[in-house]
Design goal:
The protein is an alpha+beta fold. About 45% of the residues lie in helices and about 10% in strands. Bound molecules: 6-diazenyl-5-OXO-L-norleucine. GO terms for molecular function: glutaminase activity.
């Protein structure tokens, strides 16, 4: 086994001159204020060891990475029935695109583009008031990370509520096709709060460890999903987790991964480790520029690519 701490240290050292590359998300005003000169990385191995570099302990807005946790909850609730509401194919379009929805009867291509994630949130809300659904997700993520200090950044949630015009359009469009059951404002209230989950790389890598370890968290002993379901969530992350950048991420990194416009990327080396990298500057398709480079370096230096 490679010396993982030495690998992380070398990645951090080599990337230090580049920290600040990319452009922070500015369509959510609260995220536009984030200092781009930050970089963190954490790796948690399935035998429970934690490795950190840079700002691994600094909480950031996990944004779309939350879609992995909401998807896990939705599958737990309705199982394979979820696929009546959302597809499992890459979209080849931007994360917030509306174009396919009209031709495809309001059924989003996959659970990770915004439209798909909004439909997934609607599924989780069944039988719950919005506040309860948010509470359920927060409890779930705290349980996964084994850390009660995970919070939701209300300012970020509010900021997106005020400016999330595209998400309102997507949700209204799907409601017209009867693929959203709850009032749009309620669904988006939950969705914006899930995206505003604030977590550090270390917390994120811990929370996602079950996906690297056949569905169970070896640090807590909690069984979260079946091995089959963990495999399938990983398959969706590999094919759709980076939107129209998914092919490129698979090509360069070769791991299932999920990005967020807060600059985080969560990735899984199945059977080996879960990984989180963060740097706020984004590339053209809205994925963290340096976090992707860091993951490419990690995969190359450890041989963890699934291919
Ligand atoms: O709905 C949105 O636009 C944001 N809350 C999340 C988008 C996102 O993270 C896309 N990922 N790179």
């Amino acid at each position: 086994m490679v010396d993982l701490q030495a690998v992380l240290d070398s990645i951090y050292k080599e990337l230090t001159p580049r920290i600040g590359e990319g452009k922070v998300a500015d369509y959510i005003p609260e995220l536009a204020k984030i200092d781009p000169h930050q970089f963190g990385m954490a790796v948690v191995t399935v035998d429970g060891k934690i490795y950190r570099a840079g700002d691994a302990g600094v909480p950031f807005s996990i944004q779309s990475i939350s879609k992995v946790f909401m998807l896990t909850l939705a599958l737990g609730k309705v199982g394979e029935g979820l696929w009546k509401r959302v597809g499992r194919e890459p979209s080849g379009s931007a994360f917030n695109s509306i174009v396919q929805l009209e031709h495809e009867h309001g059924i989003p291509r996959n659970p990770f583009i915004n439209a798909g994630a909004i439909a997934v949130t609607d599924v989780v809300m069944a039988g719950h008031a919005p506040r309860e659904a948010i509470g359920e997700l927060l409890r779930f993520v705290r349980y996964l990370a084994d850390d009660e200090s995970v919070t939701i950044d209300e300012k970020v949630a509010r900021s997106e509520t005020q400016t999330g015009y595209r998400n309102f359009a997507l949700a209204n469009f799907m409601r017209a096709y009867k693929n959203i059951d709850h009032p749009v404002e309620h669904v988006l209230g939950v969705y914006f709060h899930q995206c505003a989950l604030s977590m550090s790389c270390e917390q994120l890598a811990k929370a996602g460890l079950f996906l690297a370890a056949r569905g169970s968290n070896p640090m807590t002993g909690h069984s979260v999903v079946s091995p089959k379901r963990a495999r399938r969530i990983n398959a969706l992350m590999l094919t759709c987790g980076h939107y129209d950048g998914s092919g490129d991420f698979a090509y360069h990194v070769g791991l299932p991964g999920k990005s967020g416009v807060g600059g985080g990327i969560f990735a899984v080396a199945p059977g080996v480790a879960s990984i989180a990298a963060w740097s706020p500057g984004l590339n053209k398709v809205g994925n963290s520029q340096l976090a992707a480079v860091a993951l490419e370096m990690l995969a190359a230096r450890t041989g963890w690519s699934v291919f």
